[in-house]
Amino acid sequence: MTPAETRGASTPAAEAPTGPRSVTLDRPPDTRPDPPAPADPTDGVAPAARRRWRWRWTRRRIDLVVYGGFLLAAIWVTSGIWADPAGRVAALYSSDPAQVQFFLAHSVRVVLHGEFPFFTEQFNYPDGVNLMANTAILALGIPMVPVTLLFGPAVSFVTLVTLGLAGTAAAWYRVLSRHLVRHRPAAAVGAWFCGFSPAMLSHANWHPNIISQFLLPFIVWRVLVLTRSTRPVRDGALLALLVTAQAFINEEILLFTALALGVFLLAVLVQQRARWAAAWRPLGTGLAVCALLAGALLAYPLWVQFAGPMAYHGLSDTVRDYGNDIAAFFAPGSPTFGGNERANVNLAPNYSEENAFFGWSLSLLAVGIVVWLRRDVVVRALAATGLFFAVLSLGERISWWDRDLVTGPWELLVRLPLLDAVVPTRFGLITGVTVAVLLAYAVRSAWVLRGVDRRTARTLTAAGLVFALLPIAPMPLRVTTRPPVPEFITADRWRQYVGPDQTLVSVPVPAMGNTDPMRWAASTDLDFKIPGGYFLAPRNGVTGDPGRFGGRPSGIGDLLEEVASTGRTPKLDDRQRRRFLDELRHWNAAVVVLPLNEQNAEPLRRTVEQLVGPGRQELDVWLWDVRTLTSRSA
Fold it and tell me: For the chain, what is the radius of gyration of the CA atoms?
């Protein structure tokens, strides 16, 4: 049941479609070039050969221009970070980039030192972190190892964001132009929205694993190929390789792709049940082969993820309730031309999760496209798929401008296996892709519409696209500066103190709201261990518990975090000192480090001195050598 077969069209390939109802996804409209000029009689190349060469070169040139445009747009979006990758980060929230940089440094250790790829003790020591349960982006980090080694993880991070945006758009253009709509202008429009939608721009601030969707269009295409495949075993094996690679980029996006394809094919089947008779056998065979091969390749990593050390089952209640407000679909995204951060407050869980935000103009245009092309089976299936996941993205409580209305259908699904680890607002990403394909479909239909002058039709199409897409045109990501890695770290002075099984304890202790020490460790290729950090782990440190952000609760961590935020120095008694020293022993701490430029550095210094005695200044940090206090014999 490819998009081609859902149409059931029988017009010859050379015949231009006569209206919306006859538009197909698998066959190009009348896009033949104008006849070339007569060949020069003195030219030794035959006219027919010259025509073929010119046509091939023209198509290739168009593709290169489109790909180049996507890359330039991605560089434009990330230009603020490119100006100083190590010193700038997306504004409003900065924890995820540090985590990703840590994972990139872990990939270096995997390649150069043969370190176990799915688990690490380099942070949250000594409990460690289950990396398979934390999206360690191995499929992105390992290819980026040369860049990370030469330029550092901060450059690798912004490179991944740039290539994620451009690569996703380029991949969708390739599949749309070659296999689905087969019309370059239409494919370029659809691919642009796939790569640079407000949701993609929102995640570009922090989540390269989510915006790196360049494998998804090929997965979609290969599943559609299976519905009419004559070699389902081979095609199923190809699909398995794509699925395996995507699993090491982001499993949640892979799950979304599978769900979206299932709903789309079901929507087609409901309309054309006769198609199932021809499609079920190759589709079933191919999917079975895919499941067996991908299952074999992913069996051990998935065992580590779900049953290995520090594995968790389900997300925290706070994240599970992340949903879109209905009004979010009609407001432009914050990182867009017409976006307004203040206006978008409470329409999304936070600025990194603006997974809808199409704006009024595009929302109206999408509805208009569905009404115009409503006779088409594929359009109806796309509309049903997009609407279904838009409703799920509203979360457990459906709201309008931050006012709860009714309980949403997600309430019935949130506790199912696999779905209990999904962030519901991200279902809006699926709706975004369906809108993109509808845009491509509409452009292709308008481009060849009979009864209308071609130039007029194309002018009106361009005007409609400007009306819909200009308010949500991408703008450079807002950035802010972040503290540099201390010279004490970059000059390797820490190596005089910290041994292989010891930790460097920063002040404040690494946590979700203090990820700078993760950047310190990443800058050394994780040559030293740190306690705490920003990650997902079982709530009580026991495999199988529900997930939470961060490791086990830390008394000293909570104390120093409070001092850092309030600037008040507490008075500690002997009981508190003994308790906090026990934590330092548990972490096998070698040194405690406080940067001189840390917020409320003086109250923090006085607090630490109550715990472990006077410190000394070394380069740009306050330093406490605690090895005599935390040694096993102390």
Answer: 27
